[in-house]
Write a structure and sequence with these properties.
Elements: E1 2-4, E2 17-21, E3 35-37, E4 40-47, E5 49-54, E6 57-62, E7 65-69, E8 75-80, E9 85-91, H1 93-97, E10 120-122, H2 125-143, H3 149-171, H4 182-194, H5 201-208, H6 212-223, H7 227-245, H8 250-256, H9 262-273, H10 277-284
Parallel strand pairs: 1-3
Antiparallel strand pairs: 2-9, 4-7, 4-9, 5-6, 5-8, 7-10
């Protein structure tokens, strides 16, 4: 699978944010094969329509759709009509999280790592116009970089992320203090960082220094799922990615994803999907 890294020296100095039109990216000229991106990406669709896949999530996009995409998830433009256009905002985590001295900063928003809600939001004309104005200011600043541009660009990005978060909350009727719950945020971050090596509830409870029952109760209250269910669902996504987009044999995949025996790997996959890994790979590669 093709993997794209952030082009840090594009502007002859290290800059960890960029903003451009669809026509300016080499990654996207039409429907694509699955690929990975190692940085954050927000796509504001301004015209046309298409179909986008993020891991197992299928998203119908049209003008006004905003795709909210964290790094290191496989993605694919399945369909894209000839009128499709959009503005791409990309940035590295360190561009903003180190500035705020908050390792959980990007996990505080509802959209990047919320396994219970979609990876997109739809904007009406008024909201979209406000976002376009912010994006235009970001693009103009990047075109004429100054000594203090990094500070202004961080401020503009911070403001934009908050406004998107508010729109996301309204559209999906999200309530509660999820944005501020540090334990939930730490769990989400630890899961992304340790999924391949740690798949027991006890391991995450230990890293978070809470009891398993407390962690389960908290996750149930926010997601309606136990810690074990959340781990298994996230692990299944990784398994499917390896089955569909690599040529590794089943034993290699099982070992790399932390299964002690291939039989345990087969049992897990069958319990989650009703298929063996081999059957799933054959069915989806036809």
């Amino acid at each position: 699978m093709q993997k794209y890294q952030f082009y840090r020296d594009k502007y002859q100095t290290e800059l960890l944010i960029d903003c451009f039109e669809k026509s300016k990216t080499l990654m996207l000229k039409g429907p694509t094969k699955p690929f990975l991106i190692t940085f954050y990406e927000i796509i504001f669709v301004t015209a046309g329509q298409g179909k986008f896949a993020l891991n197992d999530e299928q998203i119908e996009v049209k003008a006004g759709t905003i795709l909210l995409l964290p790094p290191n998830k496989w993605r694919q433009w399945v369909e894209m009509d000839k009128n499709f256009d959009g503005i791409y905002l990309i940035f590295e985590e360190e561009f903003i999280s180190t500035f705020f001295n908050d390792a959980l900063f990007l996990y505080r928003f509802h959209y990047f790592y919320n396994t219970s809600s979609p990876s997109y939001v739809s904007a009406e004309t008024g909201d979209l116009a406000r976002f376009m104005a912010s994006l235009n200011e970001i693009r103009l600043e990047i075109k004429s970089l100054k000594a203090d541009s990094n500070h202004l660009l961080r401020a503009l990005l911070y403001l934009l992320l908050i406004h998107i978060n508010r729109l996301y909350e309204r559209n999906f009727d999200i309530k509660g203090d999820f944005y501020e719950d540090t334990l939930i945020l730490k769990f989400r971050r630890l899961l992304e960082q340790n999924l391949k090596s740690k798949q027991r509830v006890s391991e995450y409870a230990q890293m978070l220094e809470v009891s398993q029952s407390h962690l389960n109760k908290l996750l149930k209250s926010y997601f309606g799922k136990s810690c074990s269910e959340i781990i298994k669902e996230r692990l299944l996504i990784e398994v499917k990615k390896e089955l569909l987009f690599t040529k590794k044999n089943l034993s290699e995949i099982a070992f790399e994803l932390g299964f002690s025996e291939p039989s345990n790997f087969n049992r897990f996959f069958r319990e989650m999907t009703g298929l063996t890994p081999k059957s799933y790979r054959l069915q989806n590669l036809k």
